[in-house]
Amino acid sequence: MLDEGYIKFKAHWRERPPLPEAEIAELNHWRDQMYRAQLIGAYPDGIGFGNISRRYAGRQFIISGSKTGNFAQLDARHYALVSDYNVERNEVFCEGPLLASSESMSHAVVYATCPEVRAVIHVHHLALWEKHLHRLPTTWAAAAYGTPEMAREIIRLLHESTVRREEQVLVMAGHREGLIAFGEDLAGAGERLLALC
Prior knowledge:
The protein is of the alpha+beta class and 197 residues long. The chain contains six helices and ten strands, in the order E-H-E-E-E-E-E-E-H-E-H-H-H-E-E-H. It has a single domain, classed as L-fuculose-1-phosphate Aldolase. The strands form two sheets. The chain has an eight-stranded mixed sheet with strand order 1-7-6-5-4-8-10-9, with helices on both faces. The protein has a two-stranded antiparallel sheet with strand order 2-3. Helix 2 packs parallel to helix 4. The longest helix is centred in the first third of the chain and has 16 residues. It starts with 9 loop residues before the first strand and ends with a helix.
């Protein structure tokens, strides 16, 4: 059974109006591409998978909200702003119409570790996961998604120069089907994932 769609961090969420559409236009463009490629979506049981984010300001980033994988198209009502986070206490502070994605901590540590990164995309695809497991930089299998252990594993991999400067994709061994791509912009991260297909 897949352990999907459940928020494992302590969420501090303030309901707020949506961000302006202009702030999420590029996110939506690339989210649409990932959805069409079946890298973001939902399983037959209705549990959604995959998420997308972009750096906003400082430690803040905009990310697709929890339980949005079922929607073919998103709008500003489907995004949250992560304003802060604490890995050791497993806490995420967010605001918006929806609670931030269950993978927000994974996105957060990429931004915190790599100041040059402006975009992160987390996708699910069994064939790609099996093909690239241990061929691309891979997290420890005992680190489950959405946990401080996974966050620390991502940080460990990001300190390896080949991940940051060359591959810019990592495989989550403890999160079956999960891959993360990142880059200086959404186009770079998105094109990197589509090239793996």
